[in-house]
Every structure is written in structure tokens, then in C-alpha cells.
Amino acid sequence: MIWTGVLQGLDTLVIDVMLALVPLVIFFLVFQFLYLKLPASYVANLLKGLVFTFVGMVLFLQGVHVAFLPAGQEIGAFLAGLEPRWIIIPFGFLVGFLATYAEPAVRILCRQVEESSSGFLRESVLIAVLSAGVAAFVSFGMARLVFDIPFLPVMIIGYATAISLLAFADRDFIAIAFDSGGVATGPMAVTFLMALSVGSSSVIEGKDPVTDGFGLIAFIALAPIIAILLLGVVFRIKRVKNNDM
Hints:
flat
């Protein structure tokens, strides 16, 4: 039956989500009884929100297991089998942009940055920069499979570039840049994009899905850092020009 595949592994997933949320609930309740003393209505609303969070996490993660991962692997395998094979490079850019643009954690971070900066750093600008940066690195990750580019030298050069940009970027962007590297590697990227890379490497002759398919998430984590730091360099140049006027 169709529901058999959809519900497969759901019981284990429910336990995993409970193990993730229960310690947080206990932690809050301990502080509530000992220190916070928040109104009962506030606690009731918070517990209702936790129920919605639990249901949402279960449904989302189950959807990831039965849809996103298989779909990503199948699409990656299909594209890697096409000629010319480099077609997966622009496709990687497109999918990388869309996945980051749709990533909930990215939107939360960008919204908080806009609120904290009183609108100085716009949410829409940050999302666009993050999405473009991740898209560029995902396409490079696909190029690594096609042209057999070594992984380690690229990562060394990438982080050396990020460290070098610290001296030139506006200081307001530095902490945001490194936080962005964490939020960009959310469930959308880790599930679909990683599955895309693994599926592609399983089809390309001479590639090993374990040694060549993985590593894309490292690129995705590095991409927002460099992208936001570059944005910080632009803002610093503009600030210097405005002060000189």
C-alpha cells in the first residue's frame, strides 16, 4: 500500500524528535519553577507551541526521508548521465540558490539581523547574497565531480580567503558571516543538495559516492561566510566614501 512506504520508520523518528525536545522542555520548566515565575497563560501558550513544533518536525523529517533524499539522488543520477556532463554545474547553481532561498533558518537569521540593525541591513539583501553565494559554491561542487578537482586544496584556499577578508570587511558583518555558515547548512541543503551530489557521483565513472559525493556541505558552510564578508567589504568602502565626502 502507498501509506506503507510513507510511514516507514515513523516510530523511530517520533522517538528521536522526543529525545531532542524533552530535555529543552525540562530545562525550561526547571527555570520556570525556580526563577522565571512566568504567568500560567504564557507557559500554556509555550507548551502549545512545543506541540506544534513536535508535530512539524516529525512531518518534515519524515518527508525528508521519503521524498527529498530519494528525489535528490535520482535527479543527480539522471543529470550526471546526460551528455554533456557539465550540465549539472548550472543546475547546481539553480538548485543551490532555490534551496538556500527556501531555507527557514536562513530567513530567521536574516530577519533577526534586520530587526537588530533597525533596518540598516535589509533581510532581502542578506537572503539574496546568501543564496547567490551558496549557489556559486554548489555549482563549484558539481564542477569538482566533473573535472576531478581535489577537495582539500579548495577548502584551504577558501578558509584562507575568509580569514583574509576579516581585515577588510565592516566589523558589523563578521559575526553575522560566521553564523550564516551554520544556518545555510540546514535541512534543505543537507537533505536535497547532498543527495544530489551523492547521486551524481554514483553515476560518473571512476567516482566513489563516499569519497567524492560528500564534501558539498563543507562548501555550503563556507559559501555564506565569504559572501557576507564580501558584502561587508562593500559596505565598508561605501562608509569610507561617505565619510570622505
